[in-house]
Write a structure and sequence with these properties.
134 residues; alpha+beta; TolA/TonB C-terminal domain; 3-stranded antiparallel beta sheet; 2 helices; 8 strands; 28% helix; rod-shaped
Length: 134
């Protein structure tokens, strides 16, 4: 009829240990069917939505324009102009043209393992003219 006061404490301790063990096991659980050692990180870079690109200026037959454009695209698909890097022949003459294009351009954001993330968009753009035939 009388309980041993120590057994009540042991019962609480056993429950607490069981609850802690359960939490640890569920926290360490990995998605079923996927081995973390086998899964590769899959990064898909941003892609422009729609066609078009910058309308480059200053190209001649003797001096074509050839640009390398690098800009980070946010998770909403907009170019972050503070990260813009332009290099190549005609870069200075076409900087504003590229900025104007990027301000209106929309991108499909980069994805890492299916999740939308910031990513780098890199493109080479060139323009040249040919001589008119006589």
């Amino acid at each position: 009829m009388f309980r041993n006061p120590g057994s009540r404490m042991n019962n609480r301790s056993a429950r607490a240990c069981f609850a802690l063990l359960f939490l640890v096991l569920t926290a360490c659980a990995v998605r079923p069917g996927i081995s973390p050692r086998m899964e590769q990180d899959a990064l898909t870079p941003p892609r422009p939505i729609g066609g078009g690109g910058p309308a480059l200026v200053g190209a001649t037959a003797q001096a074509p324009v050839a640009l390398d454009i690098l800009v980070q695209v946010d998770t909403l698909g907009r170019a972050d102009l503070s990260t813009l890097q332009i290099s190549g022949k005609g870069a200075e003459a076409n900087r504003q043209v590229v900025v104007d294009w990027l301000q209106t351009a929309r991108f499909e954001p980069a994805r890492l393992n299916g999740y939308v993330v910031r990513g780098w968009f890199r493109v080479s753009a060139d323009a040249n003219t040919s001589r008119a035939r006589d």
